[in-house]
Amino acid sequence: MRIDGRDNKQLRPVHMEKHFIKHAEGSVLITVGDTKVICTASIDDKVPPFMRGGGKGWITAEYAMLPRATEQRNVRESSKGKVSGRTMEIQRLIGRALRSVVQLDKLGEKTVWIDCDVIQADGGTRTASITGAYVAMVLAFAKLVEEKKIDELPVHDFLAATSVGIDPEHGIILDLNYSEDARAEVDMNVVMTGEGRFVEIQGTGEEATFSREQLNELLDMAQFGIQQLIEIQRSTLGELALQIDMKRNGESGSAS
Amino acid sequence: MRIDGRDNKQLRPVHMEKHFIKHAEGSVLITVGDTKVICTASIDDKVPPFMRGGGKGWITAEYAMLPRATEQRNVRESSKGKVSGRTMEIQRLIGRALRSVVQLDKLGEKTVWIDCDVIQADGGTRTASITGAYVAMVLAFAKLVEEKKIDELPVHDFLAATSVGIDPEHGIILDLNYSEDARAEVDMNVVMTGEGRFVEIQGTGEEATFSREQLNELLDMAQFGIQQLIEIQRSTLGELALQIDMKRNGESGSAS
Amino acid sequence: MRIDGRDNKQLRPVHMEKHFIKHAEGSVLITVGDTKVICTASIDDKVPPFMRGGGKGWITAEYAMLPRATEQRNVRESSKGKVSGRTMEIQRLIGRALRSVVQLDKLGEKTVWIDCDVIQADGGTRTASITGAYVAMVLAFAKLVEEKKIDELPVHDFLAATSVGIDPEHGIILDLNYSEDARAEVDMNVVMTGEGRFVEIQGTGEEATFSREQLNELLDMAQFGIQQLIEIQRSTLGELALQIDMKRNGESGSAS
Amino acid sequence: MRIDGRDNKQLRPVHMEKHFIKHAEGSVLITVGDTKVICTASIDDKVPPFMRGGGKGWITAEYAMLPRATEQRNVRESSKGKVSGRTMEIQRLIGRALRSVVQLDKLGEKTVWIDCDVIQADGGTRTASITGAYVAMVLAFAKLVEEKKIDELPVHDFLAATSVGIDPEHGIILDLNYSEDARAEVDMNVVMTGEGRFVEIQGTGEEATFSREQLNELLDMAQFGIQQLIEIQRSTLGELALQIDMKRNGESGSAS
Amino acid sequence: MRIDGRDNKQLRPVHMEKHFIKHAEGSVLITVGDTKVICTASIDDKVPPFMRGGGKGWITAEYAMLPRATEQRNVRESSKGKVSGRTMEIQRLIGRALRSVVQLDKLGEKTVWIDCDVIQADGGTRTASITGAYVAMVLAFAKLVEEKKIDELPVHDFLAATSVGIDPEHGIILDLNYSEDARAEVDMNVVMTGEGRFVEIQGTGEEATFSREQLNELLDMAQFGIQQLIEIQRSTLGELALQIDMKRNGESGSAS
Amino acid sequence: MRIDGRDNKQLRPVHMEKHFIKHAEGSVLITVGDTKVICTASIDDKVPPFMRGGGKGWITAEYAMLPRATEQRNVRESSKGKVSGRTMEIQRLIGRALRSVVQLDKLGEKTVWIDCDVIQADGGTRTASITGAYVAMVLAFAKLVEEKKIDELPVHDFLAATSVGIDPEHGIILDLNYSEDARAEVDMNVVMTGEGRFVEIQGTGEEATFSREQLNELLDMAQFGIQQLIEIQRSTLGELALQIDMKRNGESGSAS
C-alpha cells in the first residue's frame, strides 16, 4: 500500500468548486488530495499582434505558486524579477493542451487568459491545473454564449490530465503526490480527451530509463485515471457537459 | 445609505478561517465583504545579514494579487519582471505595522515571512492584509511556543487596520469598498493597537485636501471600526488572545 | 538643546536658488541644513495613455540620490537595475502632493515631470523635495504663461512639507536631521497647503506607537514649520506668489 | 515523396566534426541536413551549492541560436534581457537526457557545462543538440581520463534523439525539417539509449490529437532513426565507443 | 621572435569563407589565427523610428561570444540578463565603422543588421569582426542589387581593422593574439579605409602611457597590416571589389 | 568665429569648486562652459574579489546624467532598468584613465569609487568628468595621507582630458560644445598626462574619415588645451600639486 494508503491505480480525492472568484468570467477551485489550485479564465476582446485579422481566437496560460504553497517557502518570482524555466514549461503546456479541444475559429478574435494559481501544493499541480482550467474555460465560454457573443460552446471534447510514474517500491502508480514524485524513477504526465485520444505525453526518466513495455502500462493506467477525472468534470459542468457531448459526436479535430 | 446598504460607520462582514494553508506555520483566510486575502506566516531560522549577531528577530512582508482578483485582469508582476511602487509601499507598511507589536528581542534570531495574497479584491486589501497577517503571525508564534522554541508569545498587543474616507455624497465613511475608494476625495488608512494607540496613519487627499476637524472625525471613526476588528481577532484566536491580554497588562512598547 | 543646537520647534536654515539648471522649464536648488536637492520641472506636451482625450494635465515625479549624497556610498539604482521600494514610495508621494494644489483641467493635456535629485542628504529629503518641487513647478507654469501656452498659473494654493517626530530624549521635535531621524520613535511627514489644510499625513511608529494627544502635538508643530516654509517659497517666487494668493482667495479644491 | 525528396522513414544526412572548438574539453559541430549546432562540453571542478559534499557530479546545459540561424533574424535573448520559455524548456531537456546515461557518482564533484549553439536552423535543433552534446561530453570525459582525473568514462550507454511527426499529406514521418515541422499535426521528440530504452518522450498535438495506434507507429519510427544516429556517434567516437559498449554490458541504470 | 613565431610586423593567417550561413543575405566566417567569427548581414525593410521619413538607411551591429569561445567558459549574457559594457562598446564601434563607408542615402529606408558571433577567440575579435562584417555587408548589398532593390553597391571604399600594441619585450607589434594582448602596455585598434584614411583610432594605455613618437610608429604599422587585410577582402569579393574601386574613384565621404 | 564667440583653439571658461559634497572623501564641482559635473571620490577598504590578496588597489568609475541635464528630458537609467552602452563606455574610459597615473601598489587593497554626475550638459561631459575626477581623487588620497592610512599621494602625474573635432565650417576646433559636437565630422577625445604623454586617444569619424595630417593637427590642439586644464587643476590643488610634481620628477609609469 502506498504512503497515503491508496492502491497503485487509485486517484486522490478530487473536488471542484465552481465560480470561486467572482470577477472572473469562469473560475474553479480544484482540489486533488492536498493540492489546491485556483483556475480562472478571463476573456479579452483582442488577440496577440501575430494573429490579428485571422478571425481566430487564442488561448494563453499563466501558472504560479503562492510562496507558502510548499513545505518550504519559495521566493516569489516577482521578487526574483524573472520566471523560472519550470514555470514557463508548465504555462506552455497548459495553453497548448487547452487549444487542442477548442475550435479557435468559432471563438472569433478573442484571447482566453487562463490563470492557474497553486495555493497549496502536494504534487501534480500541472495536471490539476489543466483539469481545472478546462472547467473554468468552459464556464467562461458559457458566459459568452449567455451574453450572445458566440453562438455555441467552441469546445469539441473534454480534456483532463494526470500523472503516472514508476516507484522503486510499488512499481507503476497513478496520480503521484509530492513524496512519491520525489522518489519516482520515471515520471509521466498525460493529457487526454474524452474520446481517449492523446493531446500530450511527457515521459521522463531522471537518471533512469524505461522500456516499451513499461511505457504501455503507464499509458493504460493514465487513461484509467483520466476517464474518472472527466466524469468529475462532467458532473461539475452539469447541463454544459451535454452540449459538449453533442459537439463531440458531430465533429473531431484529430490527426487523420 | 451607501451603495451596498451600509450606514456610514458600518464595517463590511468580516470572517477569518484559521489554518487555511497546511504547510505554513500560521495561516488565515480573511474575508472582508468581497475582499479575500490568504495570509501566511513562515518562520525562517535566520535573520538578514544586517541583523546577524544582534540576538533580535525580524518581520518582513510580501503582498501580491492574483491576476484575476480584480474586475479587469492585471498583468502578473512576475511577467513584468518588476514589482510596482504600490506593491512595495504596501509590503513595507505591513512589515512595519506588525513589528510595532512584537518583542523582536524575545523572538531570537528568526525571520517571520508574512505573505498576503489577495485572491479577490474589492477595496481595503492592505488593511485586510494587516488584520489577517496579525492572526497568522500569532498562530505561527503559538506553534513555536508549542515546539518549545520560544517561551511565550512575543506579542504585547493586538493590531488591526481599516480605512476611512470622505465620500462626495455621504461624507465620512468607514471601511471603503472599491467603488467608494475610487470616488473618495480623501482616503486614510489607520493601523491601531488594542490599547487604542496609533501605529500608522496614512491620510491622502488625491486632488483634494482636508481640515483638522475632518481629520479628527476620520480618526474617531477608524478607531470605532478597529475595535470591532480586534474583537473578531480575539474570538478567532481563542485562548491565545488571553495570553496576549496578559502581556498587554504587563508591559508596553509605546513612545514615552 | 538638540544635537545641532536647535530648540525643539526650530527649522534648519532653508534656502532656495531659482533657475539652477538652465535647460529645465523650472528649477530650484533647495537647501535645508545639510540636505540639498536639485528640483526640476519639465513640461511634456502629452499625457499618459490612460488620460488621453480627457483634456486634463498630469504631474508625475521621480526621486533619486547621488551615490555619495550619504555618509556611506550607496549603490546606484541604475546599476542594480531596479528602483527600491523607498524610492517608489517617495516618488508617488511627491506627485500626489503636487497634484492636490494644481488645477489639472486648466493645464490642458500636458505632463509635468518633476525630478528631485538629492545631491547631499542629512534627513528630510522627501519633504525638502516637495517644498522645492512646488517652486520649480510654479516657475515652469510661469514660463508656459509667458509663452502664452496657458492663460494663468493653474495653482490654487501654496504647498510645503516638513517632518516632525518623537525623540527619546527631547520629545516632540520639528524638522529632523539624519541622526535625529535614526533614533526617533515616531516619525511623521506632513504636507499642507497655504490655507492650513492637510494634503498628506504619514505617521509611523517603528517598533513603537503613539497616542491621540501626541498626534495632536505633532500636527501643531508641523503646521508651525510649514507656515515658515511657505513664507520662504513666497519670497523666492516674488510677484508669482501674489498671483497664487489671488487664485487662493477665488477658489478651493478642498473636500467639502 | 517529401519536400526534400526523402521517403517517410529516412533521416537527413548527418555529420559530426570532432574538436571543432579548440578551447573546450570536448566539442563537436553536428550537421543534420541544414541544421548545424556547435556543441561544447566544459568541465568545472565544482558542483552547484545544493549538491556540495555529496560526492556526485552534475550536468547542466544551455542552448541558444545565433540571431541569423533562422529564415528571419531573431532578436538576441541577451538584448531582450531574458531567456524565452522555449529556450528554457530545451535546456532542461538536454541536461536531463544526458544525466540519464552518466554515472554521476563516478564523475566526482565536477559540473559538466554543455553549450549547444545553433548556427544554422532547419528544424530538429533540440534533438541534434542532444545527439551532438552526447559526443562532446564523451570527448570531455576522455580528456579527464587521459589527465588521470577519473579512472574510466562514467557513461553506461549511448544516447541520441530525433523527431517524428504526423504530416497531413504523408502521414508518419521521421526527422522533420522546418517546413515539415511547421505543418505537422503531431510532433514528437524521442530520446533513447543504445539499448533501446526511453529516456524522454515528448509528444504534442497542436490543435490536434493522436490515437494509441498512431503513438505506437511514431515510436517505432523514432527507434529506427535513433539506431542509425547511434551508429554515427559510434564511428565518430572510434575507440571510445568500445569502452562504452563494455560498460553497457556490465551495468544498467534502468528502472526495474 | 614572438610567442607564435611571427615577426613584429606580421599578421596571423587570415581566411574568409563566404556564404557560411545560408539564411543570411550576406555572411562570412572570418578566421584570423585562432580567432573565428561568424559575420552575417541581414536586411530589414524599415529604419528605426528616429530615422523614419528621412529616406536614409541605417546600419546597426551586435556582437557576442559563445560561452566556450574562450579558454575559460564565460557566463552567457542572456543568462545574466544584461549585456556587458565591453560588448556594448564593441557593438557601437562596429556599427559606426561600417556606416563611415556606406552611402546611407543610396540604401533607402532599410536597416542592415550586422551580427558578429565569435565562436573561437584568441585576441583581436573586434577588429576581425569589422573586417569580416564589411565583407558580409557587401555581399548583402550585392543581393539587393541582384534583386533590383537598389541600383548599385552603396559603398564608396573598403574598410578593415587591426590591432597594434607595445609589448614589454618586443616593442611595437602588429595583430596581437590573446596572450600578447594580456601583457601589452599599450593597445590600439585602428579602422581604416582603402584610401588610407582613418575611421577610428582607439589607443589605450592600461596603467601606462605612450609618447607621440610611439603613436606614429603604431599607426604606421597598423596601416601596413590593414592594407594586407583589404587585399584579402578584395580577393574574397572578386568582381564586387572592382565595383567598389570604381565608386572610390568617383566620390569620397571624407572630412574636408 | 565659433557659435559662442570663441576662436578655434580656445577652451570654454573652466572652474572647479573643491569639497562640494560634504560626505565624500574627495569632491569637486567642475564647470566647463555650461557643462557642470559633480565628481566624488569614495574610499572603500576592500578590492573586488578578482584582486584580493594581491596587495594592490583599484579604481572604478560610474557616470550618470540627471534627467534634465539636457535640452530634452532623458528617461532615468534606473527607471529603464538598464545602463546604456554610451554610459558604460564612458565609465570604463574614466576608470582606465585614472588608473594610468595612480600607483595602485602604493594604495594598498582599497577601492576608489569615482562618481561623475552631470547636473547640466553642454558637450564634453566625459572629458570634464575625467578632469574633475582626477582632482576629487587626489583630494581623497590627501585625506588618506592625513589620516595616516597611506604614506604619500600614490599619484605620479597630472591627468586631464578634452575634445577636439573637425567642424564643417571652422575646421579643427578645441573643446566642442553640444551644438558643435552634433555637427562635427570627426570627434576626438584625448586624455594626457602632465608630461604630455597619451593615456587614451579615441578618434571617430561618424559617416566621415580623416587623414594622417588632420590627425596630427587634432592632437596638437588637444595637447594645447590639456596643458591649460592641468594648470587649473594645479591651482585648485595648491600645495598638493607640488607633491605630485615631486613624484613626477622621481618616477614614471610610461611604456618603454
From TrEMBL, chains A, B, C, D, E, F:
Gene Ontology MF, one: tRNA binding
Annotated GO biological process: rRNA 3'-end processing; rRNA catabolic process; tRNA processing
Domain of life: Bacteria
The enzyme's E.C. designation: 2.7.7.56
Keywords: Nucleotidyltransferase, RNA-binding, rRNA processing, Transferase, tRNA processing, tRNA-binding
EC top class, as a word: transferase
InterPro entries referenced in this protein's UniProt entry, alphabetically: ExoRNase_PH_dom1, ExoRNase_PH_dom2, ExoRNase_PH_dom2_sf, PNPase/RNase_PH_dom_sf, Ribosomal_Su5_D2-typ_SF, RNase_PH, RNase_PH_bac-type, RNase_PH_CS
List of residues binding phosphate: 86, 124-126
One Pfam family here: RNase_PH
Reaction catalyzed: tRNA(n+1) + phosphate = tRNA(n) + a ribonucleoside 5'-diphosphate
Record has tRNA-binding as a keyword: yes
Domain Exoribonuclease phosphorolytic: 10-140, 158-223
Role description: Phosphorolytic 3'-5' exoribonuclease that plays an important role in tRNA 3'-end maturation. Removes nucleotide residues following the 3'-CCA terminus of tRNAs; can also add nucleotides to the ends of RNA molecules by using nucleoside diphosphates as substrates, but this may not be physiologically important. Probably plays a role in initiation of 16S rRNA degradation (leading to ribosome degradation) during starvation.
The protein's assembly and partners: Homohexameric ring arranged as a trimer of dimers.
Family to which the UniProt record says this protein belongs: Belongs to the RNase PH family.
Record-linked NCBIfam families: RNasePH
Name of this chain's protein: Ribonuclease PH
Source organism phylogeny: Bacteria, Bacillati, Bacillota, Bacilli, Bacillales
Gene: rph
